[in-house]
Design a protein that fits this description.
The protein is an alpha/beta fold. Helices cover about 40% and strands about 20% of the residues. The protein has a six-stranded parallel β-sheet with strand order 1-4-3-2-5-6, sandwiched between helices. It is globular. The structure holds pantoate.
C-alpha cells in the first residue's frame, strides 16, 4: 500500500490512475478507524478500480476548547484495517503541509450547515468543507464515501459539491452499530463502561421514535418529546426532526425526515440519527 504525505505526490499518483482510465473511490477520515469506516472502504474498493483512504486529524474543524489533542491516533491498526479492506493508497498529510502559517482561504456552506451541529459547533462545517475540498483536490476522486452517522456533514458536502461543480459523486452509507445499538464512532474510545451504558440512550430513543413513526405518528413535536423523555438523564445538545435534504425543521412528518440527536456523555459528545420516509411518499 502506498502512503503519500503531500498533495503533489498524491495528485501525481491520481493523475496516473486517471490516465489509465481507472476510477478512484475515496474515503476521507481522521483515522481511529472502526467498523463504520471499514464498510466505507470495502464499498469504495468494490465499486471503483482503486480506492484511496485519507487519514488527517483536521485542526480547523476543532474549536480551541475541543478534543483535537486527545483525538485518538491509531496509525498501525488503521493501516492494517485499510489493507484488509482493499485500500491501495493512503493520503496522510502533515498539518503544516495542509495549512501554511498564512493560510486564509475557507469554504463556507450556508443554510444546511447552520442548525444542529452547526449551531453548537459554529467553526465545524467551515473546517470540514475546507479540508474536504483540499482532500478532493489532492485525491481527484470520482466517488467519495461518507457515513450517515454524520448526516448533516453529508448534507453539507453534497451541497458544496453541487454548488461548486466539483464533479465528485457523494455516496452516503448506512450507520454501522455495535450489537447493543450504539453507533460506531472514533469518540466511543472516550467512554467509560458507565458512559457507554448511558450512551445507549441515544439509539434507544431513536429506535423508539422510529417505532412511533412506523405506527403512524406524524407530529414532529410528539416524536421530539418522546426522544427527550428517554434521553433526559443526559446533557442533551439537540433533538431535531428536520427535512432530510435541507436540514430545515418540520412540523409534520410528510416527507423523508432526519431525526437527529446529540448529547454530551462523559468526555464524549455523541451524535446519532435515523432517517424515516412515510410510505405514501415515493
Ligand atoms: O467525518 C470525518 O471524519 C471528518 O469530518 C472528515 C470528513 C474526514 C473531514 O475531516
Amino acid at each position: 500500500m502506498k502512503v503519500f504525505r503531500t498533495a503533489e505526490d498524491m495528485r501525481a499518483w491520481s493523475y496516473a490512475q486517471r490516465a489509465q482510465d481507472r476510477r478512484i473511490g475515496f474515503v476521507p477520515t481522521m483515522g481511529a478507524l472502526h467498523g463504520g469506516h471499514e464498510s466505507l472502504m470495502q464499498v469504495a474498493a468494490a465499486e471503483n478500480d482503486t480506492a484511496v483512504l485519507s487519514i488527517f486529524v483536521n485542526p480547523t474543524q476543532f474549536a480551541p476548547h475541543e478534543d483535537f489533542d486527545a483525538y485518538p491516533r491509531t496509525w498501525e491498526t488503521d493501516i492494517a484495517m485499510a489493507e484488509g479492506a482493499g485500500i491501495e493508497a493512503v493520503y496522510a498529510p502533515k498539518a503544516s503541509a495542509m495549512y501554511a502559517s498564512d493560510f486564509s482561504t475557507y469554504v463556507l456552506v450556508g443554510d444546511v450547515s447552520e442548525g444542529l451541529c452547526g449551531a453548537s459547533r459554529p467553526h465545524f462545517f467551515r473546517g470540514v468543507a475546507t479540508v474536504v475540498t483540499k482532500l478532493f483536490n489532492a485525491v481527484l476522486p470520482d466517488k467519495a464515501y461518507f457515513g450517515q452517522k454524520d448526516a448533516q456533514q453529508c448534507a453539507v458536502i453534497k451541497r458544496m459539491v453541487r454548488d461548486l461543480d466539483m464533479g465528485v459523486e457523494i455516496v452516503e452509507m448506512p450507520i454501522v452499530r455495535e450489537a447493543d445499538g450504539l453507533a460506531m464512532s472514533s469518540r466511543n474510545k472516550y467512554l467509560t463502561e458507565r458512559d457507554r451504558q448511558q450512551g445507549l440512550l441515544l439509539s434507544r430513543a431513536l429506535f423508539a421514535a422510529e417505532a412511533q413513526m412506523k405506527s403512524g405518528i406524524r407530529d414532529a413535536g410528539e416524536i421530539g418529546a418522546g426522544i427527550r423523555a428517554i434521553m433526559a438523564p443526559l446533557a442533551i445538545d439537540y433533538v431535531a426532526v428536520v427535512d432530510g435534504a435541507t436540514m430545515e425543521a418540520v412540523e409534520k412528518i410528510d416527507r423523508e425526515v432526519l431525526v437527529a440527536v446529540a448529547a454530551q456523555v462523559g468526555a464524549a459528545r455523541l451524535i446519532d440519527n435515523i432517517k424515516f420516509k412515510p410510505e405514501a411518499v415515493v
